[in-house]
Every structure is written in structure tokens, then in C-alpha cells.
Amino acid sequence: MLPVNPTNFDFHSHSAVSDGFLAPEQVARRAAGNGVDLWALTDHDDLGGLDEAKRIATELGMGFVPGVEISIEWKSVPIHVVGLGFDPSHPVLCEGLENLRQGRIERAQRMSDALAAIQIHGVFEGAKRYAGNPNLISRAHFARYLVEIGIAKDVPTVFQHYLTPGKPGYVDHRWATLEDAVNWITAAGGVVVVAHPGRYKMSGGDMRRFLDDFKDLGGHGIEVVCGSHSSDHVLHFARLVRHYALHASRGSDFHGPEESYVDLGRLPQLPEDLKPIWRLVK
Ligand code: AMP
Ligand code: MN
Ligand code: MN
Ligand code: MN
Question: Which of 39, 69, 139, 172 has CA 20 to 30 A from 1's CA?
């Protein structure tokens, strides 16, 4: 049962099924302990944590919504969209995500080759040790291993110098399209939200063109309040939500106690006039 009027929903979080540090059970317990009353686990490109997350959330009396964060590209810009409230066994969604995970393995090999070219060897093997799920390898696992071997002092610094566009360990990659992601989620009965829009390196005009496409394809909402948004981002994306008549989401993007902007549920409330995305989730 979902709460009729949640007061602390958090619709963006990760477990060790993708690049989070905690098992789904621990993420569920932490969310409930922080007062979250409606929670979504949204691992990158993988649904493997949802059964455990749902079971524990139900035990704890916390509302649960199945989620996923899908990696896409739009006009060559990597973007994340969050799917919520879908049927996790839907074959169209499952097959699409399986292809994304395969692509990640191939990308990881190219990243490792690119790092070997600057004399940093064996990074794919090292990164795999940090992956809680051998089928889901992420730049976050690469970054943790590169810190372990002393390449940089912490994960943000590794990203800054090695794993972002133009840096030696970054490789271009073909993710899913926006249309794919919207179709997979809506085919499975869910709703689609643009994740952390304040993080994309896009002009204002491109963001509007992206949102035009998102709306035309049947997207539902935007994360307005999220772990990586400043108060200016909140005001800005609240305006865009009103302009596009979309719904608003709220999510910490929690990855673990040491590597997160904000803890589960510890976020400002949405601006009051916005329509919260949970109203669309069954
Ligand atoms: P990937 O999906 O493999 O490209 O990896 C992206 C993940 O790396 C994100 O979901 C974050 O967890 C993490 N990440 C991306 N950029 C940074 C950054 N600048 N500092 C720390 N972590 C980052
Ligand atoms: Mn992540
Ligand atoms: Mn993301
Ligand atoms: Mn995320």
C-alpha cells in the first residue's frame, strides 16, 4: 500500500546492485530510519535489487515504488532518466536494460585500454572488485579503484582528471536514446522523470529543446529537488516544470554514507504549487 499523502518521498537512490555501497536491504532500512515514507530504489540500468528492496520496505511499513535510472544520450549529451512505478518483469524493459549492461562491459574495456595507454594498467580487473554486481560496471567503480592505487586522493578528483570528457580515461559511448527509455518505461506501465537536470553541460536553449522532445515523447516529470541541486537550480527547474506542465520529483541520489551529496530523505520539500510525481505512480 502506498501512503495517501507522503510527506517525505525519496525517488532516487542506489544500492550495490549498481554503484551504491549498501545492499538494497540496508538502503531500505536507512531510508525508513531517516523518515522516508515513500521510497524508490533506482539503480543504474538494473532491476536486480527491487525484490529485496520491496520486501524490506514492506516489512518496515514504508511505501515502495520500483525504480531504475536509465543511461541515455540526447544529441551526444549523456543524460539520466528515472523510471518509476513500472512492472519489473516487463520483457521490453528487461531486454533494453540487458543491452545497456552489455554496452557498459564493452565501454569498460575501452576505458581500461585508454588508461593503459597512459601506463595505468589492469583497471578493468581492479574496478570489477568494487562492483557489487558483476553485470553492472560503472565509472564509479573505476574511480574507487583508481583511488585505491593512489592515482588521486578521492573519487571526485579522479573524475575531474581522468574520467570526464577530454580526460584520458573517458571514452565516448552509445547509450540508449531518449525515445528508447521513454518507450521501455511506459510499455512497462511506469512514469519517466529527468534525473538531476542541473548537472548536464547544456545551454539553456538545449535544455528547452531536450524538454520539448521529452514532453513530445510522453515524459512525465523532472527532478526539481535532488542531492546535486542548489537552491537556484530548484527555482530554475520549478519554473521549467510549470512551463512544460510536468510533474516534479524529489530524490537524494544516495549512493552510500561516504559518497553522496545528501542522505536519504534529507532534502528540502518541493515548492508547494508543483504537482508531485507520486500522484502519477500506481
Ligand atoms: P557511468 O554511469 O558509468 O557513466 O558512471 C556515472 C556515475 O559515476 C554516476 O552515477 C555517479 O555515481 C558517479 N559520478 C559521476 N560523476 C562524478 C563525479 N564528478 N564525482 C563523483 N562521482 C561521479
Ligand atoms: Mn551512480
Ligand atoms: Mn545520475
Ligand atoms: Mn543516480
Answer: 69
Nearest residue to 40 via CA among 48, 30, 50, 26: 50
For residue 99, give the nearest of 180, 24, 163 by alpha carbon: 180
For residue 133, the CA-to-ligand 3 centroid distance in Å is 18
Residues 252, 165, 97, 186, CA torsion sign? positive
Q: Which ligand is nearest to the CA of 196?
A: 3
**Residue 259: pLDDT band with limits 50, 70, 90:** confident
The dihedral built from the CA positions of residue 42, 48, 53 and 58, taken in this order, carries a sign that is positive
- pLDDT tens profile 142-164: 999 999 999 999 999 999 999 99
Residue with cell 539520466: 80
Give pLDDT tens digits for 241-257.
999 999 999 999 999 99
Q: Which ligand is closest to the CA of 172, given by its number?
A: 1
CA of 139 to the centre of ligand 1 (A): 6
Which residues touch 211 (CB under 8 Å, ≥6 apart)?
194, 222, 240, 244, 246
For residue 19, which of 46, 39, 40, 38 has the smallest C-alpha distance? 46
